[in-house]
Specification:
The protein is of the alpha/beta class. It has helices at 2-11, 28-44, 58-61, 67-70, 78-85, 147-156, 169-178, 189-194, 228-235, 240-255, 325-344, 347-360, and strands at 19-25, 49-55, 91-95, 107-112, 120-124, 141-143, 161-163, 184-188, 203-205, 219-224, 264-271, 274-282, 289-297, 314-315, 318-319. The longest helix has 20 residues, at 325-344.
Amino acid sequence: MEDSLNQYIGEGNGELHRVIRIGTRKSELARIQTDSVAEKLKELYPDVELKIVPMSTIGDKILDTALSKIGEKSLFTKELENALQRNEVDLVVHSLKDLPTALPEGFTIGAVLKRENPHDAVVLHPKYAGQTLDTLPEKSVIGTSSLRRAAQLKKRFPHLEFKDIRGNLNTRLKKLDEKEEFAAIILAAAGLRRMGWESRISQVLGPDDCMYAVGQGALAVEVRAQDRDIVEMVSVLHHLDTVLRCIAERAFLKHLASGCSVPVAVHTEVKDFKLYLTGAVYSLDGSDSLKETMWTSVTPANQVEKEAASEGVQRVGVTARNVSGAAQEAAEKLGVDLAMLLLERGAGEILTVARQHNEAQ
């Protein structure tokens, strides 16, 4: 690997390419996440110079409209991928949950890093310190930009009201603290922890209260699929369990033919060499839903032979060259099988109605 990378940075097209340019969104959280990936790469490849290239995306610019109504599938990724396509950057760091299950042609997810806590968290207004969603007063307003969160929580906490809130983490926390509009907001626990704001977490929502978004808590490194040396360079960042969990989740979402405009939620875990996937779909108010769990066997990391690794094969956009191809195939099939089961039981109708109601609001 070191030799091929040295050749890439020293002899590519007869020019010196000692700088690896990493694209990222401009938000503070995105920068923290990108810096964490850059630090890992620097530890592994100390001779490579890394340059961070920040830029704004559609999702960062449109802050007065609910994400589910903008109608753009690549809200937080399109501009970054354009820069990747124009060779202005060599790789891009994303929150995996922002990446569509079908990537533009020529791109691949070259690394899925170890997942942070994927669950959602409750951040209370200071005046409600010490309370939980259960104990908040009747008709307290909860802020969330996610149809998935709102659908689950409306059913679980019928005494509460839910209202859309947009902006980066800093902006949403400021809106919560400085105004009386919201009693609490729901955010990803992973983002709060990465920002060093774990003390703001009043309550972490378990799967019985609110299952999480596909890919939530995981970071992804997107690269040009033909840049084999870059793919190889970042592949060492793959985390086995996270890769398999996220392939299953993304396959589930893709086979449902869904996106951010409808409420779909998952929960996964790897235990005793078995991958468990729980998936659910909801109506907008949570009154109608379908939820099932399936599992499959996956190969333990210490038994993966080189010849069993997946060389250049993409599964729902992920290229994991150092992960057992059989395990990846099993994870992908698990996601597809669970989606098919829910579709057979009427998930398509629930999602169609949810999408129509969302567009009509």
